[in-house]
Write the structure tokens for this entry.
Amino acid sequence: MATTMTLYGRGDRQVFSSSDDNAMMKNILATHSPDGTNIDVIPLLQIIKDIMHRSHPDISHHACANIDAIVESVIYHDFNEMFEVLALTINKVACEITCKCGGGGDTHATAIVILNTLSNYGWDAKAVITLAAFAVNYGEFWLVAQLHKTNPLAKSLALVKQLPDVLERRESLKPRFNVVNNLVKAMFDVTHIIIKFKELREQYISPNTPELVTATTHIPTAVYWIIRSIVACASVLTNLIGMGQGYVIILPLLLPYAFSIT
């Protein structure tokens, strides 16, 4: 009989609860202490998309060519200095996600820890940096999975990590990764809206416009749910490591996160 393994701990069962929304908003806003640090998140977002697309085992050569052009554009414009500045922060958040999401952790608590880590950044940067941290873990996962049969280093890493042979079992695992990929796509879509909204208000709209003030109040919550959803998706990868044939991961529990994101 298959053993059922859920992705989330006790703190995640009331995802739809709205009874304490005001308290949650206060907790989210309490983590925000911007110091004027302003980064161009678009190049980083393009690299993240490159990682996510190339991680997919079924990516086409045509798609790779399009991605190559985007990456070359980023390199051409020499954003290496920005990446150097953000590298430590991205790795710190990636470690936080990896350490806290294993074994069914509390995604709310982890999201608040990450928001505190990124307290000095703008809301758009918080979302993109956390997406970058997830992309690092996701990319490393698939890199080992794709190369472990041909690369001795990848083979040893796969052995130590007890990584299942996801490529040979990709048909049975496909529904699990489809749910993750759909949620990641939703997170990208919302992140793009936040970035475009920031650009729009800086260029064309007075900050005192009532509609702008109303819309702006939703951004912290949206970023919180992006980060919390990232932690939930990372739990899928963590629980795949060492997963025997007898385990079943209940992915429908990711659906409330998709609902909250969209």
About this structure: Residues 124 and 198 are 8 Å apart (CA to CA).
